[in-house]
Amino acid sequence: MASSGFSPAVPPVFNGEGFHIWVVKMRTYLQVFDLWEVVNTDADPIPLRANSTVAQIRQHADERTKRHKAMSCIQNYVSDVIFTRIMACKTPTQAWDKLKEEFQGIERTRQQQLLNLRREFENLKMKEEETVKRYSNRIMFVVNSIRLLGEQFSEARIMEKEQRRASRMEEHQEGAFQGKAKAASSTTAYKGKKTLKNRPKPDAARRGDQSCKHCKRPGYPEEWCWFRSDAQSQYCKKMGYIERVCKNKGGPRQNQAQQKNVKAQVAEDSSDHEEQAFAVSCSAGQKKS
Asked: Is the entire prediction scored with pTM above 0.85?
């Protein structure tokens, strides 16, 4: 009997699908009301003795009633279509076995199902993006399917499967860590080379790469440039370049120098002429006397 205050959930009506789930729920439901033993053993109650007590008579009546209660549960929790397949059964055990035979398969089919499920269990592997919980659920679904077919499946095999999965995960994580470490090392080396390449050069080295802002030519600083803005040509008196590159090198200044030379030459020639004239006049005076 169900304990006082406890009302078990009603099992779903079996309509031909999900038998392995329905059979578990139905078995539990029968156990709550102490009816599973009647279905599982199909044993008749012990006959009453002639001098049976009132308690024994009541117990015998209860045992007989259990068979009818169990049969009622099985019949009421299957659809009408399924009911037609067990309506000829006389005991709950016969009805239960009939359902198992048809929907769980005969022995040869059962063995094939077990073989397929065992193979599926052995081939179970954790998918790339699958969570541990989802993978564990897949394992237990296969294990429970095996157990529902009457096969004993030890917890040790489940633990062994879980340990293999954990070992593979550790190997995968270790490989991923090594890959990241290698990638990080390569990146660090590349950054080191790049930093070395972009490191500022000393003045002597940078001078060869430096460009003058005045003439835009590389190889020397601005203060050496002939075309710097504060330079002034002494020939043309213009700013922006020195005498060495002045286009008026042969211009006014040189002409002035030439003119001075000409004037000096003229003056020298005039002096010589005057000296000659003086000498002639002196000579003429001496002859008259």
From this structure: no
